[in-house]
Structure formats: structure tokens, C-alpha cells
Specification:
The complex is a heterodimer of chains A (596) and B (757).
Chain A lengths: L1 H44 L3 H13 L16 H18 L3 H8 L5 H25 L13 H14 L5 H13 L3 H14 L4 H10 L3 H6 L6 H13 L3 H16 L3 H13 L3 H14 L7 H10 L3 H14 L4 H13 L3 H14 L4 H13 L3 H14 L4 H13 L3 H14 L4 H13 L3 H13 L7 H11 L3 H17 L6 H17 L3 H11 L6 H16 L14 H4 L20
Helix pairs in contact in A: 1-2, 3-4, 3-5, 4-5, 5-7, 6-7, 7-8, 8-9, 9-11, 11-12, 12-13, 13-14, 14-15, 15-16, 15-17, 16-17, 17-18, 18-19, 19-20, 19-21, 20-21, 21-22, 22-23, 23-24, 24-25, 25-26, 26-27, 27-28, 27-29, 28-29
Chain B lengths: L1 H7 L5 E2 L2 E2 L12 H15 L5 H16 L5 H11 L1 H16 L2 H10 L2 H4 L10 H15 L2 H20 L10 H16 L1 H12 L8 H17 L7 H14 L4 H13 L3 H18 L11 H18 L3 H17 L3 H18 L4 H13 L3 H18 L3 H18 L2 H18 L2 H13 L16 H16 L3 H14 L7 H19 L2 H14 L1 H14 L3 H18 L2 H17 L3 H17 L3 H17 L3 H18 L2 H19 L5 H22 L2 H18 L2 H17 L11
Chain lengths: 596, 757
Amino acid sequence: SASRGRLEGGATAQQYEKMAALSSEFGDLVQIKKQLISVISLCKERGLVHSVKWASELAFALKPLPMSELPPPAPLTEEDVEDLDALGLAKSYFDLKEYDRAAYFLRGCRSKKAYFLYMYSRYLSGEKKKDDETVDSLGPLEKGQVRNEALRELRVELSKKHRTGELDGFTLYLYGVVLRKLDLLKEAVDVFVEATHALPLHWGAWLELCNLITNIEMLKSLSLPDCWIRDFFLAHMYTELQMIKEALQKYQSLIEAGFSKSTYIISQIAVAYHNIRDIDQALSLFNELREQDPYRIENMDTFSNLLYVRSMKPELSYLAHNLVEIDKYRVETCCVIGNYYSLRSQHEKAALYFQRALKLNPRCLGAWTLMGHEYMEMKNTSAAIQAYRHAIEVNKRDYRAWYGLGQTYEILKMHFYCLYYYRRAHQLRPNDSRMLVALGECYEKLSQLSEAKKCYWRAYSVGDVERMALLKLAKLHEQLNESDEAAHCYIIYIQDIFSCGELLEHVEVSTALRYLGQYYFKNKRYDEASLCAQRCCDYNDAREEGKALLRQISQVRDQGEASSADVSLPCVFGSLSNNNTPVRRVSPLDLSSVTP
Amino acid sequence: MASVHESLYFNPMMTNGVVHANVFGIKDWVTPYKISVLVLLDEMTISKRMTLLERRRLNKLILPLQQGPDLTLRHFLKTVEECSAETAFAVKLRLHMMVVGELKDMESFFDTLPNPFSDAESEASKTSVVGLFMRHMLLAYNKLSFSQVYKLYTALQRYYDDCLGSQPGPPTAPPVDADMELSEMELTSTEDGAEGKMDKEDDEAPRRCPLSQKQAEYFLARQAYLLKNDENKALKPAALQEELNNMLKFNPDFAEAHYLSYLNSMRVQDVFISTHSLLHYFDRLILTGGDGKSNGDEGYGRSLRYAALNLAALHCRFGHYQQAELALQEAIRIAQESNDHVCLQHCLSWLYTLEQMKGSDSSVLTEDSVKMAAHFGLPYLASLGIQSLVQQGATGGKAANMLMDALKDTDILHWKHSLSELIDISLAQTTSIWRMYGKSTMALQCAQVLLNMNSLEQVDFGVQQNNTEAFAVVLCHLAELHAEQGLFGASSEILKHLKERFPPHTQHAKLWMLCDLKIQFERAMNDGKYHLAEPHVAAIAALDQMEGLYRKGLVMKAQNQTTDAYRVLQRLQLLCEKTKCTEMIIRVMLTTAELHWESSGFSTALPLLLQALVLARQHHLQALASETILHLAFSQLMLGVPEQALNILHEAMEPILAHGALLDKGRALLLVAKCQMAVSGGREDRRTGLEQAVQTLDEAAAYFSRMGCKDRLRDTHYLQARLHHALGHTAQRNECALLFRMVDQELPPARYGLPDG
């Protein structure tokens, strides 16, 4: 029993260690929670609602603090007390969106808080007027010219204060926003970095910075404050820069650090998985997200895309109904409904909902592309072209829209014309087999067979999703009477199909087997030929031919003709595995083990 | 709620998924500048005290003011002031009253605006340009909502203050603090480079205010016209692109701007942007072209066909023949499917152009094209085809009368349909053909006809002359013709003019560059300064490969690098035979024959020369034929049959003296003199023969000295001296000997080869 006791003792020691580690971690979290709570109140006072939302979501994911631990409210200065009434009045006007009125009552205040609110209301007033005027402009050409008139004045005043170093974290943030709106991007980045140093906890500044960073080199060149929030920023940045692996790592470490309940992190991870087309992971995460936060609308359009790809009709329908009940005038809701109708093949309605999404937000990129797809389904090519063009205008790097344009022209049988669009799409996604297959098909139609072959082979090399490239390549070789190459391609194709477990297109497998049977027969490799012929018999459409081939083989064998042992024959099953072609899976002769 | 919601937000104006480019259906709208123009017009109708001259100047101003882009007020007033200072002042005053007053002043202005025009005897009737403009503006003004009217008024105030607020004259007090801020803005901008750039942009912004659709259309039409007819006067490529980008930023739906961008990037040979713009244009055009489902003659299907065709043209222009062919096949297929004969016709004419560019024979295609075009009543394409056929026929050696007849027939067609562009081309072509045949007088005449002709097209946008390719070609011929006659001053004048009219970066500049180089090369060769000629060879080769190779051979021959020269000529001949360039083949043969002479292979040169003669006669190339005869005669002379030589020389003398270049004339006469000497060698009337030869030589010497051809001048003087010596004319002999000595000293040490024909 002594030994047992010792053992138990050991166990408790371990537990202690664990607890100690956790408590230090937890101590960190307490600090973080305190910081979050104080920053929430700061942002709230200044009307920065989105940052409040983000911080609150994060704070909610952490354990509640005991009474004693709650951070005291920020101390008031003399100036704050002076401005207290004016600030209260102005804030109430501000909350009611009467920005000019708020600014008017704040004009004489000297405290930093009041100054920020003063400038911020002036900025928002300009933005609001700009939006209103967009509807009310004098003519269509003037539309692009509507500007926030307040920006220049704000910039002058803020830059003056900036030079004398009078700006605090919030005003720096506002200064950065003004600069960005004036398209002074370089200056804006500097100011935002400064803002993050002055007040690291303000998520808005980080988010703005995120929108301005275009590549990883730029990210590395910035000197950012060393704070836990930086990890959130980096993870977000990696997602934006399509460095999904790094992003996932970061998020994982954040979860391990104690933020496992954060809906924000879950949604970000789900989006990351969506971007690398890991559909199952993304779906399960989104489901989890919806359990935790059933009334969430953000990111639900991405979720619906996933459901659409998997053709999960009931789930999509449920999601759509649910969202409509929450808020039907949201871009995300409209996109979800659009996807829903599209899955039900009601393309007119789908297009209608995408249009509605665009009315809500004309710069919504995804909706333009999706609408293009709907018009394609409806065979309204001109409208589709238009929608895709709009998508490209919003974002030149939208490869889906370029691909869609290519498809549209392909439908119009303009194979040469669509090459340009496919090429653009391919440039943007060099490792996406779909563009390569499309290019190959076009070249094939234009009888540029050598180009077509290159495209197909490349499509296979980068990892063909639809598994069509090899088959097309094989058929091309067959057409050109290059039987060895054709056989080679068919072999790899069959290996691919069988090794991935699920059987997709029976017709094509049987075609391959049929061809291979004939090929081996011609080359007097009767063993392989009969194997292929037997496999053929498993398929309805090739059964007769398989049987015929088997008969032929036995006939020839009866005549005593020996199977050729010509080693020089290329790429037969056996020699494949030590060939340097990219062979990945099971031994090719092991066909019998696979039940088709 | 829903409807309120929808109307509040920007509505992309979609019907059936097609966004209409012009959302409000208004092509024009009221801007502060337009108000100024309206005030001016109003002032002009009211004021009776204007002098006739002033009124006329103002009247001339109206159209550009209406159509042009918005000007700043200062600029506008200055323009008006130049015509009539009084009116400018009146306009300024009225604007000032409107600005310092209240909104009602502007409103009352628009209320009273139509009054002067409603009179029956008014100068500006309802349907006149002014009347239409006025009514457009009134309509646009009346459509404005309350807030828009107010916005317009504040815009007017700002417009006025921006330009005149800082001036001491008008009593408006500029908003002080805003001004201060602005000046401080400048301060910051001097401190920070990047900020300064931004500020400058900001300052420029009011100048580059967005164009209304009308103004934009006018701008595009004008620039496109200028690009086609007189590239010099169009905006510089970079500036034009900037304007276009600006226009597209404000209205991405303005498809025509993309097309102009395509044309513009073609100018600078930018294949990337031009493809991009072209495709973008057609993507946009497809939207505006009628409803989506029609596939018929009009609208959508049509623009698809032309999209493919234009893409083919683009690849053709960049020399991507394979791509062009694929695109063309596509266009043809689509056009066939939809039975669009007109489009097919266009495709066909591009097809033969493509074949021609690839260097294969396309006359059958062209003939078909002409027939079909005539059948479908497309005169432009038909005569374009005929011109192309004539060109092919001319190089292929068709009978001259047939070609000329064809050209005459097309000319009738051109005049009937007022195809002035084709008239120009036809004249330029005739010039080239005459030149090729060696009829310099006729060529000269044709060139002059074109240059002196008044263009049929209206003189538009202030373009007085058409700076088209036809003019460049004709002027180049003119320069070369003058140089041939030794009129180097005149030819360099012409070249200078060409340089001005077609600056080096423009599309037709290569023509005169080649021409200039050729003339310089010839002069250097004639002067015997081969080292000067050599650098020209590389330059010529850059512009024209075959010509460059030929000149390289010439220089090598002149420098006695016989083997190298022979190799170059052989290579050139192979190249020529591939491209069927008869003129060059003959010239190569002649030069090769000259090389044979150098190694005294006169008899081996004969078959070559005879072959050349046959070719030249077949293709009616008179100048080359005559030159071949000279070569033949020289060979015969050297082979010891001067009588024969003299016989055939007579045949060639007449055309050479009538049409030939000065150099050819001199050479011919020198050869005649040599033959005369040789013939008279043994006979008793030797003296008369020699005297004849002396006369001939005198004439030849005159030609050579005019051309500055010292090498040959020296030979001539030498011969003259010898003849005079033989005849016993001591004084003349000494004179000629002195001349010989002088020329000989100027020249580099003589190469003791044979003086050629």
C-alpha cells in the first residue's frame, strides 16, 4: 500500500504542477480580462461600437472576475470634470446619429475624450452626408466624385496636433482613418502603427492596419507592440494573406492559451478552413459556432457556400429560414437565400436575392460573382458577363470572376476568345487544376494539341480535383495514336480512382480499362490484358467487350502463342511503381483487392 | 419598410440583370460652368450694344464652349474677354450678383432664362444649337431635387470663389479660416514629399472635374478622329491614358473609353493593355447591345462576332499571326452560324491581309473578297480588296494596263461614295507603282496630285491636312525622287517636313526613317566614303531586313571583300525567292554580275544578266531593265564586241535619259563613250568617233559632278584627257588632266579594279 501511496503522492504532485501552470496561465487571463473590461468602457464612451463588440466577445469567452478583481473606472482629470455635462449631452446626440449637433456642443471642450468625440462626430457627419449625396448626386458621372468634405479639414487639424504629439491612441486611430480615406496609405500605416503602440488594446486600429498590409514583407517590416493582442492580429493577417497554415497554428495556440470559447476565433478558423477547401473541418466548426451563437449572421454566407458545395439542401434551407427570422435585410442573409435558391435550381430567384445583397452593399464582391453564376445557369450570358465584370471591377484579383467570364465565352463557343480569361484566372491561381483543365479544353477545341497536352499534364501535376485531366490527356494521346502515352495515362488514372476509394465515374473507368485491355492484347501481354478484361466485365457498358476480349485471349493462348516478355514495353502495370512518374498509392496490380 | 429601404440605397438600376450605363437618362446636367455659359448666352441675346465684330467672335466661341470640358471661371472669362471685354465684365457681374445674393437669385435666373428665346424673331430658335443647349439645361435643372438645387448653388459659390475670391476686384469676402487652413496645408506639404504629392493632386482636382456624358462623347470622338488622321495633334499617349482612366474612374460603364484606351495603347505598342482594353470594351458593349437573348443582326450576337474579329486584328497588328488566325477562324465561324454576310466580308478581308502579312499568296482570297463585297454592296471593302489585288498584281508582274484600269475603276467608285481615305491611298499606290516601273515623271505627277488635292473630308477639329500613311508614302517618294536628281537640298527639306509631320514616335515614322537612311547611304557610297555608309547599313537592317542585307552586300563589294559580299548576296537571293520580291532579286543579280566582273568573269555574268533582263521585262520594271542592259553592254564591251554593245545600248538610252536618275544617266553616257571609243578604234573615221565620244563624256561629267560622284568623275576626266591627247587637243588635255589630278587627290587611294558600268 505504501508503494500505492507513493504512486498517488506522485500523481498529486503532477496535479499540483499542472494546476500551477494553469494558474499562471489563468493569472495572465485575469490580466487580459481586466484589460478588456477597461478598454470596453473606454471604447464605449467614445462610440467605437465595433471595437466594443470585438472586445466584449473576447471578454465573454473568459471566466468572470470576482468582485474584488474588477478594474476601477478610469480616473477623471480636471478637464474631464469640466466637460462632463457637454460630453454627456453630445454623446446622447451622437448615439442618436445627430453628429453635427454633437460636434457643436463639443467644440469648446478641452479634455481628450471630448476632443476625440468632437473629431469623430465631424468625421461621421461627413461620411453620412457622403452616403446621402451618393443617392442625390447631380448626375451619374459625378457619382464617383462624391467625397467626404470634412476629411481635409480634419486632416489639417489632426496633423497639427500630431506634430506636437498631442494625440492619444484613439485620436491617432481617427487620424489614420482620415489619412486612409484620403488615399494616403503609407502615412496611414505609420499612424496606425503609432496608434497600436499608444493603445494596443484597441482592435479597430489593428483591423485598419490589416486592410492596409498587402504582403508578408510589409508585415515583417513593421514594428508592432509586444502584446497578447498582437497574436490575434497576426492570425487575422495570415488568413488575409492566404497563409492558412500559419494562421491555423496561431489560432490553435490562442485556443490553447485559454480562448477556446471565443466565437471570434472559431469563426476565423472556420473561414480559414473554407479558404483551403477543407470542407468537413469548416462545416463542423460552423455548426459548433451556430450552437454557441445561434443568432449570429456574420460569416454565415461562407457557411452557406460550404453547404452549397456539399449539396446539403435541408441544412441550407434551415439556415436560410433561421437567418430570415433574425434579419432579412442583411447582405449575408441575402447571399444565403441566393445560395439556397440556386441549390434548388430556382436561378431567377437566386439572382434576385444576390441583387438584393448588392443593393444593400454594392461593393459586396462575392455577390457579383455568384450572381454571374446564376445568370450563367439561366443562359443569360450577357447579364452574366456584366456581373462578372462588376466583380472584377471591385476586385481585380477575383479569379472566380475571370474563370466565370471564360466559361461564359466558352458557352458562346468562342474558344479562342475565352483563352484570355482563363489565362488571367490561371495567373491568379497557378496551382488550381480547374483553370488548367479549362485551358486545355479550349486548346483542344482549337486543335492546339501540344498546348492542350501541356495543360492537362500540368493540371494533373498540381493535383487535379475533378480527376478529369488525365482522362482527357489519355484521350488526346489516343487520338494522336500515341498508344504508349495513352496507356500510361490510363494506368495512372485507374490507380488514382481506385486508390482514393470512392468510385466516381464508372463510364470513364470502364473506358480506361477497355483501352488498356486492347492495348495489352496488342502488345501480347495476355495476363494483364485478361485482368483488364475481367475488370471490364464489372461494368455494364463494357461487359460485352470484356467478354469478347477474354474469348480472344483464350483463343490466342490455345494456339499456344506465348505472352510477350518484351521488357522494352513502356509503363505496364508492374514497371510503373519504379518508374519516376508520380505514383502515389497501392500497387497497381492489386486491382483485385478493390471492389468496384 | 422594404420599399423605403430600397429607395434609400444606391440602386444599381438593373433590369433583367443589365445595368444601364446612364442611370438617369440624362446626358447632360447643370454645373456651375454651364451656368456661366448660360449667363453668357443670355447676355448675348439681351445686349444690343455689341459691335458686329465682337458678336461674330462670340458666336464662333459658343460651340467649343458648349462642347468642351468644364473650364475654370478665370479661364472662361479670359476666353470671353478676348472676344469682348464688355460682355466678359457683364457676365462676371451677373455671376457675382448671383453668388453674393441668395438661392432665389439663381432660381429667378433659371425662371427668366427662356424668355428671350420664346420670341419668334429670336436669333436662337428652339431647334438651334443654342436653343437645344438651353432647353437641355432647363430640363436638367427642373429635374433637380431641392437638395440638389441647393448643392448646385453652393457649388456655384465655390466655383466663383475659387477663381475670383482671391482677386482684389470683387467684393466677396473669402471665408478666412478656410483660407488659412489651406495655406497651412501648403506648409505641411512642403515638409513632406508624399503629402505634397497628394496636395498637388487635390489642387488639380477641380480642373479635372468629371465630364458630362456629352462632353465625354465629344472628347472621345475628337481624340479618336485625331488618332486616325493626325496623331500629332492628339494628346500624348500618357496624357490621353490619364484622361481615360479618370473618365473611367467616374463612370466605369463608359465603354467607348475602353476602346480609345485600346487605340491609345496600340500607339505605344503595349500588347497587354490593348488586349485588356479591347476585351473590356466588348464585355461592356455586349451589355448595352439590346436585350440579352437576341442573337440576330443587331445587338448582342453582333458585338460578339466583331469582338472576335477585333481581337484578330489586334493580334495581326502585333504580328502574332497564329493567334490572329485562330481568332479569325472563330469570328468566321460565329458569323457563318448567324448568317452575317457583312461581318464575314470583313473577316475575309482580314484573312487575305493576314495571308499577305505571312507572305503567302492570297490573290484568290482577295478576288473572292472583292466579288462578295461588290455583291453585298460594301464599296469600302470592295475597293480595299481591289487595291490589295493591284498591289499583289504589281509585285507579281501583272500587265500594267490592267492594274491601271483597275485603279481607275476603283477611283470612280471612291468619288461616287466619297471615300476620301481610299482616294488618298489609291493615289499613293499609283505613285508607288509608277516609281516601281521606273517612270519617275509619272510618279512625281501623281505625288503632286495627292499633295495638292483638297481633302473631301470636312476639315474637322482644326486638322488642316490628313497626316495619314498615304501622305507619308508619297512624301517619301518625293524625297527620294529629288535625291535621285541630285537635288539634295530639296530632298532634305522634304525630309524635314516629314519629321515635323510624323514625329519619330508616331506610327508612320518608320517610312521616312528608311527613306532618309537610304538617301544618306547612297550619298556616302557615291562619295566613296564607305566607312560612312557602313553604320547606315545596321540602321536600315533594323527597319527593313532585306534592304539592309542588300546594302551590306554593296558595302562589302565596294570594300573589295568579294567572298563575303558573294555570300551575303546568295543569302539575300534565297530570302527574296521565298518572299517573291522580284525587284530585289534583279538587283541582287546585277550586283552578283558585278562581282563576277571583278574576277574578270564577264562571260559567266552574261547568263545571270539575261535572266535578270527577262525578269525585269516580265514585271515591266523599266528602270531595272535599262540598268540590266547597261550591264550587258558593259560585259559585251569587255568581251570585245563593242558594236553589239552599242546596238543594245541604244535601246536603253531613251528610257534612261527620260526617267532615269542622274547617276544612271551619267553611267550610261560613260559607257556609250567607251563603246564609241572601242568601235572607232580600228576604222578610218576614227577621229569623228572619238570626237563623238568626247562630247558624250562631257555630258556624263556634268551629270557626275552634279551628283557629287567623284569616283566616276575621275574616270571620266581620265578618259577625256586620253581622248583629247589622241585627238591632239593639248590645251583641253591639260585641263582635263588637271581636273583628274584634283579629284584624285580628294579621293582615297584608288582601288585598281575595273570601273563598272
